[in-house]
Design brief:
Length: 230
């Protein structure tokens, strides 16, 4: 029961977070990012279903091609008259070298065809994971200018200085929402590794987990500064 990530519960947690951000920071940029994450998540479930679904048409086509190639090879071998008594050693070496090269090339071609379905699914998964990675970076941009050391201070400002209108409590909630959203991004990414345990997909998911954890750590460092200053 608790060995797989539940897609429905991830969606429920994300939608609740969106409501919390909307109630606390309506019309904020962070709320728009969360809404975009909901759109991405809505695309995740059908993507996962397509990844988990067996492509029988593609497998049948690959099986037909591979079987046809192997039959043609066996048929071609029956046409040769293997009279080793009349074959010179040099000719035998040349024949063996040519045969090994052909076997390697045919083996690579068969491997390419057999792994085609996995590579197509991998491409779709990594494309979706790249969207999640981009959202994580956008969340980082939103917390980037939230400086807890500026709370309650009236330091000189320039025309390009970021607006600092949040109170200490509001800033702490804002940073906490960023951290929660990053955690959900990591969980959505983990769903792809759960449905497609491919080495490249798992590596990409691990990269996103490291990215979101690192950004979340920065947000929590700011939260700790706020708590220590109160």
């Amino acid at each position: 029961m608790y060995r797989d990530i539940n897609v429905a519960k991830v969606g429920k947690t994300l939608r609740r977070l969106n409501l919390r951000i909307e109630e606390r920071f309506p019309k904020s940029g962070l709320h728009k990012v969360c809404e975009e994450l909901i759109v991405v998540f809505a695309e995740t479930e059908p993507n996962l279903q397509n990844i988990a679904k067996t492509n029988y048409w593609l497998r049948g086509t690959v099986a037909f091609i591979v079987t046809s190639v192997l039959l043609m090879i066996f048929y071609g071998l029956t046409l040769f008259d293997f009279n080793f008594g009349k074959i010179k050693f040099i000719e035998l070496v040349q024949f063996a070298e040519s045969a090994v090269n052909d076997v390697i090339l045919i083996g690579l071609a068969i491997f390419f065809l057999v792994s085609l379905e996995t590579r197509i699914k991998r491409s779709k998964a990594i494309s979706s994971l790249n969207e999640l990675r981009a959202i994580a970076h956008i969340v980082d941009m939103h917390q980037l200018t939230k400086d807890p050391t500026e709370i309650g201070k009236k330091n000189p400002r320039t025309a390009s200085s970021p607006k600092r209108v949040l109170s200490a409590f509001e800033l702490q909630r804002y940073l906490d929402y960023c951290s929660e959203m990053l955690s959900i991004v990591g969980k959505i990414a983990a769903l792809y590794a759960q449905h497609l345990p491919d080495a490249a997909v798992i590596a990409s998911v691990n990269e996103i987990e490291s990215l979101t954890t690192g950004i979340s750590r920065k947000a929590w460092q700011k939260i700790m500064i706020l708590q220590q200053s109160n």
